[in-house]
Design a protein that fits this description.
6-stranded mixed sheet, 635 residues, alpha/beta, 46% helix
Amino acid sequence: MVKFVLTMTRRQKRLVLLLLDLSCVVLAFTVSTMIQFSTLRPAAILANNWPLVPPLMAVALGLSLVLGTADVRLKHYDLAAAERTALFAAILAVASATLAALGALGLPAGFHVIFGLVFLSLAAGGRIALLHVLLAIYRQSAEVTRVLIYGAGRTGMALAAALRSRADILPVAFVDDNATLRGLIVAGLPVFSGPHLPRVIEQYNVRRVLLAMPSLSVHKQSLLSRRLARLGLEVQTLPSFAQLIGDEALVDKLEPAPPSALLNRKGLHTELADGCDGYRGGAVMVTGAGGSIGLELCRQVVACRPRKLVMFELSEVALYTAGMELRVLTEGLGIELVSVLGSAGDGVLVERVLKDHAVDAVLHAAAYKHVPLVEGNARAGVVNNALATQVLVQKVRAACVRRFVLVSSDKAVRPASVMGATKRMAELIVQGQAAQPGRTIFSIVRFGNVLGSSGSVIPLFQEQIAAGGPVTLTHEAISRYFMTIQEAARLVLIAGSLARGGEVFVLDMGEPVRIRDLARRVIEASGYTVRDHANPDGDIEIVTTGLRPGEKLHEELLIGDGPRKMVHPKIISVIEPKLSELELAAALRDLREAVEADEEAVIGTALRRWVGYSPAPGHKTRTRSAGAFGVLIAE
């Protein structure tokens, strides 16, 4: 039966509705006679007035063709279609009165009013009844996909309307977490709340759910998708309403383009598809787990199915937020989650955590990374980025952890900022540990700028655009290498799996991107035009403010011309110069003494001596009082 219904041609379906309308004429005439003359045996009256029926059927046939009532699909029978049926009934009632008068049948005027109303009820009710019969057949059929729509908002209603034109997909209900919608009928479908999903799935025999909530962030959609998938549902997501109705260009104007769309190069997700070998079944610790990169590392480690994930984080709020998300991601996977609040420089805490949880791999993403902030707080930068790394690697070696990966930065190459110098110092510390015999494999991953991470340039541009501009950049010619958070995290995992000890891994990110070009793309992707000399009537101006302290025009990824090799189609491994054991010990001693003295000038001197720190031209000098003397410090 279902197969027959699905294979019916449009002409056959139209014929069924035409026959329905013609049948309604006969039935409405009979019922009207019974009502008008108050009789249950209208045979004699019908016999006297029956000559009126064939002309009315002919009129009904013509009206059906002219008004197109037989062309309206049952799934689309809404208020507009009902109004068309009402017009049909009104004209048919007028025709009945006219024909009765011409034939001198003597029928009272009230009969024709009743006839029109009864016909309207039968024609509309017949269509609704047919629709319910079809829905009942579809619900029992394996040939029709029954779907739930998660989200009863504008996009969900538009999706329900769009699916009505599909013979093979049947929307049966909405699910929405808005309690005020529970129990309502929206776009002809009942609305249920999220907690009732298991019952709804069983009641409607549903195996697929469509997420129609484009306002949710990507990560929240991911969490919801996983939760629905655990109920045995196939989950599909939907873009915004404008994309749904096919207005693709409008979406590009209304919504900021995702950071990955602004790279101006092909993403590397397919090339970076592996990297789980070193983490599957083990205990993995991620420092800085609440940060942008640290949290993405945690997400990707979870996908590798470790035995345990230790989230090590200094910020209480960041650790709580990360834990809430990861507990949803790991639900039902048998992965133990451990939240540790503290600093990677706390040797006692680190030692206990590594021992208690038998950690197999450490991914060290904890660091201060904002160049201007670290420039003005050099002591904190040295303590957190360099000295804490020294404490961590010593405890990692003592605990015989199998793998250690340092997340570093391109700013560590010939550093021109305190932040870059402290990251270079952290690299030298890890290289020093790698040179010593032991079980732990130490390696370094060096990033370019990570799109979408906290403090990155694209969110700043988008905030400036939302405020009406201008968009600011520090120099017309400034350029940077860029990668996405997902690429950065995957690079760390792959590097940890491939490392043999002491290598620096760098992702092939293509050509550097001029920040001015990037700013222009963000403006245009947000639906605005750039205001400049060529377009004085544009929306958003790009303003140059001058290089900030510690900022370089162009970043580099490699130091020197040491041996390099491609260990992966998109990853380069290099061995770079390092300090001897005695030099490293002296450098750490100098840094500790500088930190204890709390003199930024002394810290700057130590960094210049050991890592080749050369302040960028954007530096100024300022004087800070130190007792009776003035001390010059690089700013």
